[in-house]
Amino acid sequence: MELIEEAPHRFRIDPHGPMRVPGVVFASRKLLNDAEKSLEQVVNVATLPGIVGASYAMPDIHWGYGFPIGGVAATDVADGGVVSPGGVGFDISCGVRLLAADTDQKGLESALTEVMDGLDRAIPRGAGPGGVWHLTGPGQLERILRGGSRYAVGEGHGVERDLVRCEDGGAVADADVDQVSARARERGLGQVGSLGSANHFLEVQRVDEVYDETAAAAFGITVGQVCVMIHCGSRGLGHQICTDHVRLMDRAMTRYGIKVPDRQLACTPVESPEGQRYLGAMAAAANYGRANRQLLSDAARKVFHRAAGIRLSLVYDVSHNLAKIETHPVAGTRRTLCVHRKGATRAFPPGHPDLPDDLREVGQPVLIPGTMGTASYVLVGVAGGDAFSSTCHGAGRVLSRHRAARAVGGRELRARLESAGIAVRPRSLRGLAEETPEAYKDVSEVVAASEGARLCRTVARLVPLGVVKG
DNA sequence: ATGTTC
């Protein structure tokens, strides 16, 4: 694969074969070690009907289903542009929420063990069923799919301000619950308010360093402050929706004369019935994901308040696995695009009309979950950023789960983290070992490359005090 | 990511 370094942290793959646009990869040479397979996926995505600009990849690019994780692709809706479930991923609406406590680390110190034990009891996690909410019936699930965080807050599990600080005000309006299969509903019924497994987590963190005082002040965070970060998605419901609609599109694709180099890129035009059905189901999963994070926030707030009298206010909630209809300039004119972000975070610049009033001048908060025992980051969107206002989403795996678990024992890893002052509440030691920090790229390098590529600016670095894992 | 292989 020929990569042309056209600017610092920016590589181009010139169009060849059926590519409609170039590939553009934002990264350092080091981060692109062993990236050959995922770069082929960048090339494959560049062949999609209606794609505009480029097939983009963020510095945390790695191999995914059809599209690379860390991929951004926008298609022109009025020009036959397609939507592809593989461009969103299986964990629809997976995302991150950051809450800021009304105390610094000293104010938590004596209560940390009690808080962690409380979270251990209150936060459902791991594979399979279990959630903080026990639904009273299918009607309630439909209200979640339509109302997202807005419904959870309306039921008393949060405050109005939570919605202001949540992407899309806590819910998207275009959810179509009829496109959510019986099987997807069944799987979603028992998992409302749960973390799931793998790299999903709830962490108690401390703001270790602030790089941009103005943005940090607007976001409501300061050095030494305690925060809570929640990383989770739409569980089995989103997974089932992706499975269902990939199958539907795979069958329908030929009717639209679409040929893709990899079946996992199954897609149909945004304006086709199949495209609309997928987007309606995806929106329902997006709302489920937001409600999920809202209910986990509510559970965490109760623990913090009961154990330590600490209150938590929402900094922001943003997804890194979604397709959204947005307007962006393309070759000088504003176009309506379907922007796929898969393992990539929306990063609106200062002045964007969709930002809350009190954040509009500084830009959108971008939340980057790191790995256990390392760090997480808060970034901010910048003007003039490429890739349709998108940036990275996390560290990116380098070791398979199997290899990670062979590299370190769960007991040994827990001891290592505890001796580094990080309280750990894992559900399984095997699951903990699979998430050992060595299994991931250095999140600091990913963030530095993203800023170097002018996709965002670094605002703050957060370090873990306690980890709740699936 | 995922009732970790329909």
TrEMBL record:
- Which residues hold GMP? 199-203, 320-321, 369-372, 376, 393-396, 469
Catalytically driven reaction(s): a 3'-end 3'-phospho-ribonucleotide-RNA + a 5'-end dephospho-ribonucleoside-RNA + GTP = a ribonucleotidyl-ribonucleotide-RNA + GMP + diphosphate; a 3'-end 2',3'-cyclophospho-ribonucleotide-RNA + a 5'-end dephospho-ribonucleoside-RNA + GTP + H2O = a ribonucleotidyl-ribonucleotide-RNA + GMP + diphosphate + H(+)
Q: Give the residues the record marks as binding Mn(2+) 2.
A: H231, H320
Q: Which cofactor does it need?
A: Mn(2+)
Which GO molecular-function terms appear in the entry?
GTP binding; metal ion binding; RNA ligase (ATP) activity; RNA ligase (GTP) activity
Spell out the SUPFAM superfamilies in the cross-references: Hypothetical protein PH1602
Quote the catalytic residue positions.
H393 (gmp-histidine intermediate)
Alphabetized InterPro entries for the sequence = RtcB, RtcB-like_sf
**Which Enzyme Commission number(s) are listed?**
6.5.1.-
Keywords from the UniProt entry = GTP-binding, Ligase, Manganese, Metal-binding, Nucleotide-binding, RNA repair
Q: Which enzyme class?
A: ligase
Q: How is the cofactor bound?
A: Binds 2 manganese ions per subunit.
Instruction: List residues binding Mn(2+) 1.
Output: D91, H200
* An annotated GO BP: RNA processing
User: How does this chain assemble?
Assistant: Monomer.
Q: Which family does it belong to?
A: Belongs to the RtcB family.
Protein name as it appears in the record: tRNA-splicing ligase RtcB
